[in-house]
Amino acid sequence: MNLRRRHKIGAEVNTSSLNDIMFFLLLFFLLASTLVAPHVIKVTLPKAATGQTVPKKNVNVSVTKDGQYFVDKQAVSEPQLEEILKSYEGKAEEVTVIINADSAAQVQPFVNVMDIASRHKLKLVVAAQKK
Questions:
Q1: Which of 115, 118, 114, 110 is nearest to 89 (CA)?
Q2: Which spans are transmembrane here (predicted)?
Q3: Strand partners, 63
Q4: What is the per-residue pLDDT for 60?
């Protein structure tokens, strides 16, 4: 009669290095989260009952390759564009005119929009794609 016990190999997972891995992951995410915006100065703003900020408005002016003007997806003529931009005169801090010109468009309609915006002292941004 053979009464010897058979030696079974136990399955075990060595977790001694898991603490090191978790420490390095925590350290990495803490450092990465501070480097996301390194030039940000964190301040707590004071509270006021009447302090409201005025949201800035963007006026999108599109120029097609045919020389047509669109203001916020509505077709307008050049005199109508002049009137629309004239209504924002004196609000240069609140309004920005964004020009979306077709790459195949003629230069003159594009320059007309720039001229109208500068005449009414509005901020002007030209939209472009990255190469």
A1: 118
A2: 21-41
A3: 69, 101
A4: 86
